[in-house]
Amino acid sequence: MSAKYGTVLVFPFSTVIDEANSDVLKAFGASLARSSWRKHNSGWNCLRKFECDMKFSVSWPLSHDNWVKFIVWAVQVRGLAPSTVRDYVASIKLAHSFMGLAAICPLKDRLVQLFLAGSENISLTSTAPSNTRRAISPKT
Question: Which CATH architecture has domain 34-125?
Answer without folding.
Answer: Orthogonal Bundle (1.10)
